Structure formats: structure tokens, C-alpha cells
Amino acid sequence: MANTVEKTRKQIAKKKGGSIDALHENSRNAKRLHYAQHRDERLQKIARARGKRDQPLLQRVSHFRDIVKDGGYKALSLEEVHAKINDYVHEYDEEYEEVKKARRSGRPASTREDLVRMKIAALTKEQKDGFYMPDLTIEKNVQLLERWEGEWAYLTNLAWVKVMGSGTVKPASFPPHLS
User: Fold this and answer.
1) Is residue 22 part of a domain?
2) If you compute the radius of gyration of the chain from its CA atoms, what whole number of angstroms results?
3) Within 10 A of 57 (CB to CB), how many other CB atoms are there?
4) How many domains does the chain have?
5) Does 158 reside within a domain?
6) Phi/psi of residue 92, each to 5°?
7) H or E element: which one contains 39?
């Protein structure tokens, strides 16, 4: 991934005749190495945060890819899309009921129960306001989804839509502008 330290170390070693062990603690070259290491750590931290933020959308695309895979990579009708969205929104209901039943009466909700309830509430709200997903009603888009291998950059090739709870479909852009 980030390899600024290795490049800097190589440049300093070339300049110093192959030895970077004899650097003074506060020398310019030592500061260059320190800055390069700090930069690499910062870039790795940003990449981890981006990956964590993008993971739910990747899981969503993977879920809908599996759905069209089971259907032989054929485009779906709008009614089928609404049914699949409803299934996706309510897939955590069973887990929520299990966690709720496991809790003794009179006890506060567990952290897991709260997280699942918040996830269900967020998905339900998104379903009502406009569910963001790849357009599965277009054959070409379904074929593009078939070739997807899990890469974030490839998702820009797909046509995206927001399927409203009222039954209408609005075109959307990728990446989503989630607030």
C-alpha cells in the first residue's frame, strides 16, 4: 500500500553510500524518514476508515448480485425488485426477535439488540425515502453486475437508482451522497 518509507530509505541509502544506520537523531534525513513513516501511517488509517464506510454498500451489492445470480442473471420486474428490497430490509427481523427473547424481562436491551434495532429502523426509513441500489430492471446492468468481482471502482460502471416506497424509481449517481 503506502511505501513512502521504503522509497525515502532507498534514496537516503543511495546518497549515504548504502548505510542509513549512521544517521544522527535530529538530522534532516532522520526527519525525512520520520515524516515518511508518519505519512504512511496516516494513509493507512484513512484507507481503513474508507473501507469501513464502504463495506455496507459492498455487502448490499453482493446481496443483490446473489439474487440475480439465483435468477440466472436476468433483469427483474419492478414488482420483483420491490419484493427483494422488502426481503433485504426485513432480513434482520428474525435475529432481532431472537435477541429480544433471550433477554430476561425487566432487563435493559443489550448492545446487540440496540444495534440490530437501529439497523432495521435505518433500512425501513431508507426503503420509504428511497432505497439506493444498482438498477436490476436493465439487462445490460445485470450483465455488468455478473462480472463484478468485489472491487469498489467497478461499481461506477453500473447504473444506480433510488427505488422509492411509493413505487417510483429515480436515477441516482455513484458514489452515494449519504448524509
Assistant:
1) yes
2) 24
3) 17
4) 1
5) no
6) -95, 0
7) helix 28-70
pTM here is 0.72
**160 strand-pairing partners:** 134, 172
Distances (CA, A) of 114 to 38, 58, 99, 106, 117: 37, 23, 10, 16, 5
In the numeric block, the cell 476508515 is attached to 49
CA distances (Å), origin 163, targets 9, 134, 171: 52, 10, 9
Encode pLDDT of 92-138 as tens digits: 888 888 888 888 888 888 888 899 999 999 999 988 988 999 998 88
Q: Which residue has the cell 458514489?
A: 175
Residue 23 confidence (pLDDT) above 60: yes
- pLDDT at residue 179, rounded to an integer: 43
DSSP 8-state assignment for residue 104? P
Cα–Cα distances (Å) from 28 to 8, 12, 21, 35, 71, in that order, read 12, 10, 14, 10, 62
In a domain, residue 162? The reply is no
Domain that holds residue 51: 1-58
> Rounded to an integer, what is the distance from CA 36 to the centroid of its chain?
28
Q: Does residue 8 belong to any structural domain of this protein?
A: yes
Query: What is the overall mean pLDDT for the chain?
Result: 86
